[in-house]
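hey so i finally got around to running the thing on that chain from the lab meeting. sorry it took forever, my laptop kept dying and i had to restart like 3 times. anyway pasting the input first so we r on the same page abt which one it is
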Amino acid sequence: MAEARLQMEPAETKAELQRLRERFSVGTPAVHKELSLISLVPKWLGSESGIPLKEFISSIEGAASVGLWEDSDRLQVAILRLSDAAKQFYNGSIELHSQGVTWEIIKEVFR
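ok and heres what got predicted. didnt touch it at all, straight out
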């Protein structure tokens, strides 16, 4: 009788695991970030010859809303798309390289 009980326990465990997987997969849809939208964000030069800062920020915000980006993604995209004077300013501003820097801080600094 003990042997039959031992054989049933793995089957019951498998059934319970399957039930839990189904319950969690239905309740929490997967979130997929669309990072290919980075190509839609123009480089920002930080000078009058390039696009205005407002357009740069707007393009990041727009791509972020479509691509399901988090603030950390926005921050990284902004840094990647800096060029010329804007990149030099960022590289020279040590405080912008700290752990606590957010997308909102970057927006305010460049304004």
